[in-house]
Automatic annotation (TrEMBL):
<dbReference type="Pfam" id="PF22353">
    <property type="entry name" value="PF1197-like_C"/>
</dbReference>
<dbReference type="GO" id="GO:0016491">
    <property type="term" value="F:oxidoreductase activity"/>
</dbReference>
<feature type="domain" description="NAD(P)H:rubredoxin oxidoreductase C-terminal">
    <location>
        <begin position="298"/>
        <end position="347"/>
    </location>
</feature>
<feature type="domain" description="FAD/NAD(P)-binding">
    <location>
        <begin position="1"/>
        <end position="277"/>
    </location>
</feature>
<dbReference type="Pfam" id="PF07992">
    <property type="entry name" value="Pyr_redox_2"/>
</dbReference>
<dbReference type="InterPro" id="IPR023753">
    <property type="entry name" value="FAD/NAD-binding_dom"/>
</dbReference>
<dbReference type="InterPro" id="IPR036188">
    <property type="entry name" value="FAD/NAD-bd_sf"/>
</dbReference>
<dbReference type="InterPro" id="IPR054748">
    <property type="entry name" value="NROR-like_C"/>
</dbReference>
<keyword id="KW-0274">FAD</keyword>
<dbReference type="InterPro" id="IPR050260">
    <property type="entry name" value="FAD-bd_OxRdtase"/>
</dbReference>
<protein>
    <submittedName>
        <fullName>Oxidoreductase</fullName>
    </submittedName>
</protein>
<keyword id="KW-0285">Flavoprotein</keyword>
<dbReference type="InterPro" id="IPR016156">
    <property type="entry name" value="FAD/NAD-linked_Rdtase_dimer_sf"/>
</dbReference>
Length: 358
């Protein structure tokens, strides 16, 4: 079976690993470098990881695995009837096509927006690293997990970090959890400006609806936009992401989508961990092993500087602290989700328990 994967990120590479022993696998990737671990980019920017450590799989690894890697190649159009992928370097026939096209960083189109950095690729990371090392200062627009990871890592290194967030809560969590996260990062000097609307950038100042904040280097970290252009132009059903079922089938036969570009019932998972889990489910499906992905069960593990946090299961409006580090969330009288602070081992125990009761 010829399997063509568009995208060499965590989902695409994991799927190739799972299938390459039994099938002919080709990866099409528009970037010119092999797979690198995007969750480690903030560590690289902070000087906590060397560039070479971001690349776990050199080119000869693909060759040894029997994976054909086409770097610097852009997928242009899918002919679903003929089962052909058109690229800027020729056409590829497939039996199964998998879109693992990832996402782009969401940006703010405000006056002065061209001053902002984003962090999605290794080239983004190099540019941001250079600016931060030069200025010893960073203002982050966005209080999601990527922004908080960067804030935690850079503040540990003595960089002055400010976080500006439109909402009054971080990561969509409740007020109590927001205060715990804020408190931990404030110990390292991170300043928070919550509930702010960003209006413009003037010289070295970010202007919000409440104040003017000095900012020599500004990172926009307000989420992602799934990369759906190839799917949309090829006639697949899309919304924010490429629409899939629980086995990652799209609206066209023998075409699947996984990772940040995939959407199911309004949910886009948006983490490398989820993309790799998608790949494992899809690999089973393609091997004829019944499997499906539970999009409603969250399994996210983060570390903001020295502060680990895990979000497991479903978060509801009713939450209660079980102990000083664990907040549980209920539907009726049943615990359906937890947020665990500091103790990752406890979080994994909770994940196993919650999955077994679904």
């Amino acid at each position: 079976m010829k399997v063509v994967i568009v995208g060499n990120g965590p989902g695409g590479v994991e799927l190739a690993k799972q299938l390459s022993e039994e099938h002919e696998v080709t990866i099409v990737e528009r970037e010119t470098v092999p797979y690198y671990t995007k969750p480690m980019l903030s560590h690289y920017v902070a000087g906590l990881a060397e560039e070479k450590s971001l690349f776990p799989y050199p080119i000869d690894w693909y060759e040894k695995k029997g994976i054909k890697l086409l770097l610097g190649t852009t997928a242009k159009r899918i002919d679903a009837e003929k089962k052909v992928l058109e690229t800027d370097r020729g056409t590829l026939e497939y039996d199964v096509l998998v879109l693992a096209t990832g996402a782009k960083p969401r940006t703010l189109k405000i006056p002065g927006w061209e001053r902002m950095y984003t962090l999605r690729t290794i080239e983004d990371a190099k540019r941001l690293k250079g600016a931060v090392e030069r200025e010893k200062d960073l203002l982050i627009i966005g209080g999601g997990f990527i922004g908080l990871e960067i804030a935690g890592n850079l503040s540990k290194q003595g960089i002055k970090v400010k976080v500006v967030e439109k909402m009054t809560r971080l990561m969509g969590l409740d007020e109590e959890l927001t205060e715990r996260i804020k408190g931990e990062l404030e110990k390292h000097g991170v300043e928070f400006y919550l509930g702010r609307d960003v209006e413009r950038i003037e010289n070295d100042v970010l202007v919000t609806d409440k104040e003017e904040i000095p900012a020599r280097v500004i990172l926009c970290s307000i989420g992602i936009v799934p990369e759906v252009s190839l799917a949309k132009e090829s006639g697949l059903d899309v919304n924010r992401g490429i629409l899939v079922d629980k086995t990652f089938r799209t609206s066209k036969p023998d075409i699947y989508a996984i990772g940040d570009c995939a959407e199911h019932e309004g949910i886009i998972c948006g983490t490398a961990k989820a993309a790799m889990a998608h790949a494992k489910v899809l690999a089973n499906t393609l091997k004829g092993i019944p499997d499906e992905y539970d999009f409603h069960f969250r399994s996210s593990y983060f570390k903001f500087g020295d502060f680990p946090i895990a979000i497991v299961g479903e978060l509801t409006d009713r939450g209660e602290w079980i102990d000083s580090e664990t907040k549980s969330f209920y539907r009726d009288e049943k615990i359906v989700g937890v947020v665990v602070l500091s103790d990752v081992r406890k979080a994994r125990e909770w994940e196993e328990r919650l999955r077994s009761t679904r």
